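Submission sheet (multi-component)
Chains listed below:
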Amino acid sequence: MKVALFAGGTGGTKLAHGFAMLGNQVELSVIANVGDDVAVHGLLVCPDIDALLYTLGGLIDAERGWGVVDDTHTAHAMFARYGEPTWFTVGDADLATHIHRTWRMAEGASLTDATAAMASALGVGARILPATDERHRTMVSTDDGELAFQEYFVRLRQQPEVRGVRFASAAGSRARATPAVLAAIATSQLVVIGPSNPIVSIGPILALDGVRTALESATGVRLAVSPIIAGQALKGPADRMLASMGHEVSAAGVARLYAGLVDRFVIDEADAALAPQIAALGMEPVVLPTVMRDDSARAGLAEALLAGIA
Amino acid sequence: MKVALFAGGTGGTKLAHGFAMLGNQVELSVIANVGDDVAVHGLLVCPDIDALLYTLGGLIDAERGWGVVDDTHTAHAMFARYGEPTWFTVGDADLATHIHRTWRMAEGASLTDATAAMASALGVGARILPATDERHRTMVSTDDGELAFQEYFVRLRQQPEVRGVRFASAAGSRARATPAVLAAIATSQLVVIGPSNPIVSIGPILALDGVRTALESATGVRLAVSPIIAGQALKGPADRMLASMGHEVSAAGVARLYAGLVDRFVIDEADAALAPQIAALGMEPVVLPTVMRDDSARAGLAEALLAGIA
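Outcome: structure written.
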């Protein structure tokens, strides 16, 4: 079965891993957020793509949820000696990823091509599709002014309150989703919006030219999984961000953001009482255990999402 | 006293270190070979400049004579996973050097500017001057065809016999020495051609537009130190290369290559018998212990070269 999964950050990546663990029964395309991408030491760093590459390739530092397990940080110390900013820590193996990608792209490969080659090299069976090959960088408006995403997320450790988000593109025009992304949405029997931050992980994908239209006309079952459980994000600032941007901090608040885009909305068992609110938004509420504590919980959630899909 | 030193490879670098150890009495400009430069993983690697940076900055892996001491090789293993060629090993700290340089240059810095900033960051007091800021890559003709220098030197471990050398430049025209290099030659009281390979370390510098003329009109004392002692190179393929290119494999054979360019030619005590041959070439022979076994021998040789210079 063909599955397309919108993913960014920890939750989406874990669910991608869950689907990948189901093996040949699922032909998985992960549509990865690129709004977090950032140039570090002149190299293109794609945190969400890399988390997918490392997780699905079995290299992830599972404790941190990013980077390569047992990585060294020798280059980082040398960058410090050269007086480079060091607030964005890049391990040595991780650095090879950024160098390899940047080099391939300098030689003409698209981000999509480069990612496909790297996934293949790391033995990743799923397709990891950057949401766009164009420049599309998340900029957050805060009380401290507008910040590039990683300035907010890493350098300032998500301290400022987020009041708004926009996406900076190369030409000043709106970036387009890749043809591969639009095809994955159109041809999958199941399209899943992962349990990722709706504002800065899923939002950037939905903001791309072509994505909402593709979702609206998708023939597969469209489903979203709430990243908010009992009013809280399991990881990251999604809950605070929903609040500071004036949204309800609950699974229902997230569901409202996806109204018209999905047929089913999955809430955690802890939020079963919200089912009527979800139904009132025109979505079928599905109550499941959604906390992906370990590998078997990841695979279990993926399997549950497939239930009843032709 | 102002000293300009032509350097490439191990011998020239050790002598640079010797001059640097003399402290404030010497204002040292090292004119560094760039013919060995190579793009690795899309990054600009400058082996001779880096050996100078690391040696003068106290970071060199003294046992190997290149790279950073106690470096890790985590990125290298990751490059292998991505299917990149791995015959050119780059340590992780070393990688930071190449990234930093490549980035600065992508932002518009010349190689000279980038090198100066890096030397300063590493606490190097000497000026390290790339011989040229233009493309000037050593290509060696061998019985196996023409090879880029590092293909010959590293990948093929200097196995093929070298029959000739040429320098590939960007425009097909001859690369020019930088103004800083020409000024260092013109204004130094002592100009030293270090004990480096005359074909592939010093040769590329002498081949640059402006260098021979500058040397010919230099007002300081011009001196070369033989890299050949008792018919052998202490390290590297200089002896074999001299032979395969039809030169005499001796200090006198090297002196012949520098005829008209230097006033004094320093030979090792082991070669004292060659003094008359050197004199016959129109150079003053100087017999000294030239083997730089340890730091004090490096400083001792540098000090001896300064003897009698105003």
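Remark: The two ends of chain A are 8 Å apart (CA to CA).
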